[in-house]
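Sample log: ATP-grasp domain-containing protein.
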Amino acid sequence: MLNLKQYRQFLTKNERNKIYLRKNGSEGRSTADSKYKTKRILGKAGVGVPGLIARFRKPEEVESYGWEKLEGNYVIKPVSGYGGEGIVIVRKKINDEKYQLMDGKVIRVRDLKMHCQEILAGRYSLYGLRDSVLVEERIKIHPIFLAFTKTGTPDVRVIVYNRVPVMAMLRIPTEKSKGKANLQQGAIGLGVDLATGITTFGVVGKGEVIKRIYDSRKKKMRKVNGIKIPFWTEILETAIRTQEIISGLGFVGVDIVLDKEVGPLVLEVNARPGLSIQICNKAGLKARMEKVEDIEVKSRGHAINLAKYLFGEGFFEKLEQKEKGRTVEPIEV
């Protein structure tokens, strides 16, 4: 339960919409709202993004595409979708007419085509307008995450304001979320200490607090705190670079996945990031953003140091005090 002081540090939806979304110009929002524009601009600037297999803009392009050549491990998504809606994650090919999805469901090629046609018609579009379809390579999941999910690829959302990372969470897909790292659909969200990249607290779905998560390596439940995310400084730098490259975004959520071979890749950019990240961090975005609003950030290194210094929780120091000297070691690969 939050006390009054803590509550006042939290950013409400009205405050986000009236104050902070105004920091995002129309050009930046337009880019963020299009996964294709985001991918093209970031890729051109040298930021890692998932590989593009195909893009469909017309119904006939869907019908004429050689689906049989795809062996699996790909993702179908609307260019202008939101909240994880309309995304289909394909695990493997069964034969030329059938594929298996991440949730184990078997789907026919004709059903995939129909889904693409629905995307083109605007069913999953942010504004309900006609859309286009992306078919992307599915990320090769980093080994550290294999213990916590078998249904999809976890990602790290980093909120960046005035070039400074102010909050982050690790999002883990579940069976309920059907392989998608989206809390609104039932994924798990773990708060992350910005200084260390180590998880702290957890929620599932729209805000149910959890203290434990299943570890398939040890075949038992374990505490949600203590998972060390690899490439942490690189993740923060990637999030900062993304805000710098996409002009006109002052307040942004950057979703980053970790490929086991190439490291951090930007999956998506959100110009209207959700607020549940505050719950799994037990901290308020408003208070953190107010701290950095007027700071002149001199470089990415400066921004990273600010984030680690201002928002590093010293979580394990607190645990050591609580446990009277017992040390809790973070899990690493």
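Observation: Residues 91 and 102 are 5 Å apart (CA to CA).
Observation: The chain is about 30% helix and 25% strand.
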